[in-house]
Design goal:
The protein is α+β, with helices and mostly antiparallel strands and about 850 residues long. Among the domains are: about 210 residues, Alpha-Beta Plaits, CATH 3.30.70; about 150 residues, Rossmann fold; about 80 residues, Tetratricopeptide repeat domain (Serine Threonine Protein Phosphatase 5, Tetratricopeptide repeat, Alpha Horseshoe). Helix content is about 60%, strand content about 10%. Strands 1, 2, 3, 4, 5, 6, 7, 8 and 9 form a 9-stranded mixed beta sheet that branches. A hairpin with a 6-residue loop joins strand 7 and strand 8. InterPro entries: A/G_cyclase, Mod_pep_cyc, TPR_rpt.
Length: about 850
């Protein structure tokens, strides 16, 4: 260009180089046309100029891309990020996808200025050379569209200074793409990617002939192929040597169906006894879940078959598919070569094929239980359970059941009767098992369970005590189960039944007794969210008592004011109960305010065929009448039920008697009512110490409820005997008793003319778990103070909490009808106040 000599280069300087390339620029010009493309590039140049000034960059060269020089690496990164964002905005205005690839490197460069004559004929004003320039160019070439690649030096300096980019610097993504080799460069270079969330591909660059991954020798394609061939050869050889049998994809806590035991020995004593022994042995596992007899028979009924149908291979497979079980287990006992063989076939329920067969031989009948233990241990191992878990949980069957085959057979027949809901027959079988082995702890536990379901705590207590005396003869799960009942029936200082049930639920989440009982205690304590959390884990299809869990969940949702959810859970519960659906849906309808629909449903079911009244359903009928304002009829129904219950259950008699008195206490305050309540309170107070420990908490709740009703009936000063009861309840670890004692104290303060102290006391108890009646006393105290706005707010809260009033189970549900009547009275007061205000405006 000129004969003038080139100016000498300056001293090498450390600079940041940024090379960019506008992706598919030629195709862009072809698509837009020359005129539109020229207009776009003018906007592009304006963007570049603005960013140069913002980030202090010097443009060295440009064509489809840019070569810029920066003093600081963070300025180069800021330019690249803003340039990429600016191109996206330019493209969005024209519905184009404009992306740039960029390479950023820090290194020494030589710069010199061309002569004016050279610049006049087209040379660049400033020349830049040095190894840093081709390095940045290789980085830019490797980058994918929208990607900014940095060398390790540039990444270190920019990452450390990223906070200078402000808030955007905190949202940058940084990713290493490993070591790369560049042609002509002897040492590998670590490459990094940086970009904004959602706008950087975060993908490894594509290798080119001039840049490729630095891969160790053993990871190169030829070496990998050789290694793969070697591994495949070993694998094929190992497979032919071991030839594993086909298995089912079984995961922890999956379910299995156990078919009826095939007894090929001709000895009928082994029929039920070994079948039950196999179940007990396998139930010790926390890895494998067995569908219970109760659930299997329920599924048979849904299949329109007799619940006593034999569970053979085909039937068990169909049950497994319906209930989502992964495998069917078919146990067999046979005499082979003079030895007793216990075996089990594992069947795929989908195909009906046997995928695994296990067996153990022993000498004579005495070997049967040990052989079952051996087979179940093999089975647990084959299904994937860890050996440590098997060793820790597996206890010998004679230790956790009985050494007597006859006693085990009687127990097994009792379990079958219990599954058919024939509790009287089940009791006979369990008692026969105890005659044959008086220390058979599982039989004691089974009898206790029946008496608990019959609300006969004294009888349940005796068998619980017997089982606890032989706790070591129970599987670990059943030990936890009985210890939870022990903490409830025989509470020691510091013992917490809720903690015991919660532990059982957490350790054995598919044994639903833990979750259901912990949820019930949570509801008694007013902790409805906690109850809902655990009940939702118990309403699964495999729970044989799913209907009860659904009913309990519906009541907990009702207490939270979620009426639609409550109605749906009640409906599902009623479907589970079939011929005896109960009145839960009516409860949800009434709580939501639809009294007509609730009463129609009650009338329809009570008058229907096969209706069996449960105490909870009777209380529902009484509460709906109370909400309707029919307090006299409601009290009369409660009196009638009390008379019918008296010969059978003293507790139920007191429940309905106090319900009747509570409804009368809302209507009147006279000496006769006070006298009757005082008599009840005195009798119940004496019963607290006279009754067995298992019944004391129930009688304490009844006695405290009668004391509160006595206060509502107008009694100003409590007798010393009842004051002592309240003091004892205040010191009690029973949450229900202490809350009721607090309620009584607040009511006493109010009646003594100290409404402000009553409010202060109640406020300390308002933690979301308070009794519904605490709101009533709070409202009365505020009314006595004369704070009309606070009274109105409390009335609104009472009316809105009608669901809690219906669902509250503290104190044997005695307060439910009273709660509902009080909520209805609050609603009437609100409506009356609104009417008065409307009239005043007229």
């Amino acid at each position: 260009m000129t004969d003038a000599p080139a100016p000498p280069p300056e001293v090498p300087q450390l600079r940041t180089l940024l090379l960019t390339d506008l992706c598919d620029s030629v195709a862009l010009v072809e698509k837009l046309g020359d005129a539109n493309a020229a207009e776009l590039f003018k906007r592009h140049d304006s963007l570049v100029l603005e960013l140069q000034q913002r980030w202090r960059g010097r443009l060295i060269d440009r064509s489809d891309g840019l070569l810029l020089l920066f003093e600081r690496p963070i300025d180069g990164l800021g330019f690249a990020l803003d340039y990429s964002r600016g191109l996206r905005d330019l493209g969005a205005q024209r519905k184009l996808d404009l992306k740039v690839r960029a390479g950023l490197h820090v290194g020494e460069v030589l710069t010199w200025r061309n002569s004016d004559a050279a610049v006049q004929v087209g040379a660049k004003p400033l020349e830049v050379e040095g190894l840093a320039k081709p390095t940045a160019a290789r980085l830019m070439t490797l980058a994918r569209p929208g990607q900014i690649l940095l060398s390790a030096v540039a990444e270190s300096l920019t990452h450390r200074a990223a906070r200078e980019l402000g808030e955007r610097g905190e949202r940058l993504l940084w990713k290493s793409h490993g070591r790369w080799r560049f042609k002509g460069v002897p040492t590998p270079l670590e490459i990094y990617e940086v970009g904004e969330i959602g706008h950087t591909p975060l993908r490894a660059p594509k290798p080119t002939p001039k840049a490729w991954r630095d891969i160790p020798l053993w990871r190169r394609p030829a070496a990998l192929a050789a290694e793969a061939a070697l591994i495949a050869a070993f694998a094929v050889g190992a497979w032919f040597v071991t030839r594993p049998q086909p298995a089912i994809a079984f995961a922890e806590r999956d379910w299995v169906v156990v078919g009826d035991l095939r007894n090929l020995t001709g000895n009928q004593v082994l029929d039920e006894s070994l079948d039950q022994a196999f179940r007990i042995s396998l139930e010790q596992s926390r890895y494998v879940n067995l569908l219970s007899d109760l659930k299997v028979r329920d599924t048979l009924v849904r299949m329109q078959r007799s619940p006593d149908s034999r569970i053979d291979r085909a039937t068990a497979s169909e049950i497994a598919q319906r209930d989502g079980a992964k495998a069917v287990l078919l146990p067999t006992v046979a005499e082979v070569g003079g030895r007793l063989r216990v075996s089990v076939d594992v069947v795929d329920p989908t195909s009906g094929a046997t995928v695994l067969a296990l067996s153990k031989d022993g000498k004579g009948l005495d070997s049967a239980l040990a052989s079952i233990d051996d087979v179940t241990a093999q089975l647990r191992d084959q299904l994937g359970e860890a050996m440590d878990s098997i060793a820790q949980s597996a206890q010998p069957l004679p230790q956790v059941t009985t050494a007597s085959i006859d006693a085990l057979r009687a127990y097994s027949l009792g379990v079958e009767a219990y599954a058919r809901k024939e509790n009287d027959s089940a009791l006979e079988y369990f008692n026969r098992a105890l005659e044959l082995d008086k220390d058979f702890a599982l039989a004691h536990a089974a009898i206790m369970r029946i008496y608990v379901s019959r609300a006969a705590p004294a009888l349940a207590e005796s068998h619980l005590s017997a089982a606890l005396n032989h706790l070591e003869r129970l599987p670990k799960r059943d030990q936890l189960y009985l210890l939870a009942w022990k903490s409830q029936y025989f509470p020691q200082k510091g013992d917490d039944p809720a903690r015991r049930w919660k532990l059982l639920a957490q350790l054995y989440p598919d044994y639903y007794a833990g979750a259901a009982n912990y949820a019930w205690i949570s509801m008694e304590n007013g902790d409805y969210p906690e109850a809902i959390k655990y009940l939702k884990s118990a309403v699964v299809a495999n729970n044989p008592l799913r209907g009860y869990a659904l009913d309990q969940l519906a009541r907990a949702e009702l207490a939270q004011g979620r009426y639609q959810e409550s109605f749906e859970y009640f409906r599902q519960s009623e479907e589970e109960f079939g011929a005896s659906p109960g009145l839960g849906s009516a409860l949800a309808l009434a709580a939501s305010g639809d009294l007509l629909a609730a009463q129609r449903l009650i009338d329809h079911r009570v008058e229907g065929n096969g209706y069996q009244a449960r105490p909870a359903d009777i209380i529902t009928r009484i509460a709906v009448l109370a909400q309707s304002g029919n307090l006299v009829e409601a009290a009369s129904l409660a009196d009638q039920e009390a008379k019918q219950a008296k010969p059978e259950s003293e507790l139920l008699y007191h429940d309905f008697k106090l319900i009747a008195l509570s409804l009368r206490a809302t209507e009147m305050q006279d000496a006769d009512l006070q006298s009757e309540l005082l008599k009840c309170a005195s009798e119940l107070s004496k019963s607290v110490s006279a009754k067995p420990s298992v019944e004391r908490s129930d009688y304490a709740a009844l006695a405290l409820a009668s004391v509160y009703l006595l206060q509502r009936a107008g009694l100003k000063k409590l007798p010393n005997e009842l004051q002592g009861l309240v003091r004892m309840a205040e010191r009690s670890s029973d949450a229900t008793a202490s809350r009721m004692a607090g309620l009584i104290r607040a009511k006493q303060l109010l009646q003594e003319g100290n409404p402000r102290l009553a409010v202060t006391l109640l406020q300390s108890q308002m933690n979301g778990k308070e009794l519904f009646q605490s709101r009533i006393v709070m409202r009365d105290a505020l009314d006595r103070i004369g704070d009309s706005e606070a009274v109105l707010a409390q009335d609104r809260a009472i009316a809105a909490a009608r669901g809690q009033g219906y669902a509250e189970v503290a104190g044997s549900s005695i307060f439910q009808p009273l709660n509902v009547a009080d909520a209805a009275a609050a609603m009437r007061r609100i409506k009356g106040l609104n009417l008065d205000r409307s009239t005043a405006r007229l």
